[in-house]
Amino acid sequence: MKRVMLGTMSPEQTNLLMLRRLPARLTLEQAADDMGFNPGDVPILVVAKLLKPLGHPAPNGQKYFSSAELDRLRNDAEWLGRDSGALIRHWRKRNALRKANHTKSHP
């Protein structure tokens, strides 16, 4: 059984994680909850090619993820290190751009 931090989760998140067996495919939001990411982290990991949605969804379409693949990745320490690094690089770059744009507009 998975450890669940009930105090910080919505009822929907708690219900998903309390299932004995997850559905075969998860929405982006469910995948984020299951893996301990923020929903906004998932598209970053998809762009970095660290997560792959099922099929070939349209860029603006609903993305689904394999719960079996998420289970495999959850147990891969090397992958967890790469995904954490990708998120850190993304936000470092984004914050640097924001700071540079702020400096240009406010000399």
Q: What does the secondary structure layout of this molecule look like, with pairings?
A:
Blueprint: H1 11-18, E1 25-27, H2 28-35, H3 41-47, E2 64-66, H4 67-74, H5 77-105
Attribute tags:
mainly alpha; Multidrug-efflux Transporter Regulator, Chain: A, Domain 2; two-stranded antiparallel sheet; elongated; disordered N terminus
| Helix run count | 5
Outline the biggest β-sheet.
Answer: 2 strands, antiparallel
* Structural class designation: mainly alpha
CATH class: Mainly Alpha
Tally of domains: 1
Query: Which CATH architecture is right?
Result: Orthogonal Bundle
Number of strands: 2
Question: Mean pLDDT, nearest integer?
Answer: 86
What this model shows, in words?
The protein is elongated, with a radius of gyration of 16 Å. It starts with 10 loop residues before the first helix and ends with a helix. The protein is mainly α and 107 residues long. It has a single domain (6-105), classed as Multidrug-efflux Transporter Regulator, Chain: A, Domain 2 (Orthogonal Bundle). Strands 1-2 form a two-stranded antiparallel ribbon. The protein has helices at 11-18, 28-35, 41-47, 67-74, 77-105; strands spanning 25-27, 64-66.
